[in-house]
Amino acid sequence: MQRDEASRRGRPRETGGLEVVVATTSAEREACYRLRYRVFVEEMGASIPPGHGGLERDRFDAHCHHLLVRNMASGAVVACTRVLTDTQACLTGGFYSEQEFNLAGIRGLPGRVMEIGRTCVDPAWRRGGTIAALWAGLARFMADNRFGYLIGCASIPMDDGGATARAITDDLREQHLAPAGRQVRPRRPLPALVDGAADASGRLPPLLKAYMRLGAKIGGEPCWDPAFGCADLFISLESGDLQSRYLRHFVERRRDVEPRRRHIAA
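and the corresponding structure tokens:
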């Protein structure tokens, strides 16, 4: 993989026994793939090709930087995400999300673009501090490499045939719809709801809720991903919003509750 961006570790950002690093070894990357398998395949029922060996990975992974959140006491990886930069996307034929959305407008954005994907958190660690630690790493990566925009997909389960995904999209469209230049069109719209489908709540999944708190916008209607059994909402975020909103919603808010976590973005 060409290392066109800084993948240096630097000093770990500590958050109550957690550290955020960029994977630099095959063992660290494999730990991310194993966590992804547990979450996406075993927990969510995603369909992946045979011969996986308990690892969830695809052709994009070799070109990505992998950020992991690690329990400093045990060394276990408790959360991870991958970053595909605009330069590395040229080697893969485009961003992962281009498989699901027409990104013509995104291609014309001023400044550099990075895509996050396959974000997941161990069930035992799904709390604010873990997500805060992960976003601390992403904020630092964006700042160090001067990215102007972050893009990606946020998944919503389709267990109810898409009723919840539609309710969430309707709710978010009112205040969180991206400007025209950052709106996208899904290549595979959600299937029609069956007659008599029950009304669903617009309660946001934790990761999608975190994206919105950080100032992310949705790109429009979601795309149906049958392999992962979910609806994917395209999200985008300007770097300036990430920096200011990250400090307000995560660092400053958690400082009042747990002072030992105040240095996670240092």
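(Above: one complete record from the training split.) The chain has seven helices and eleven strands.
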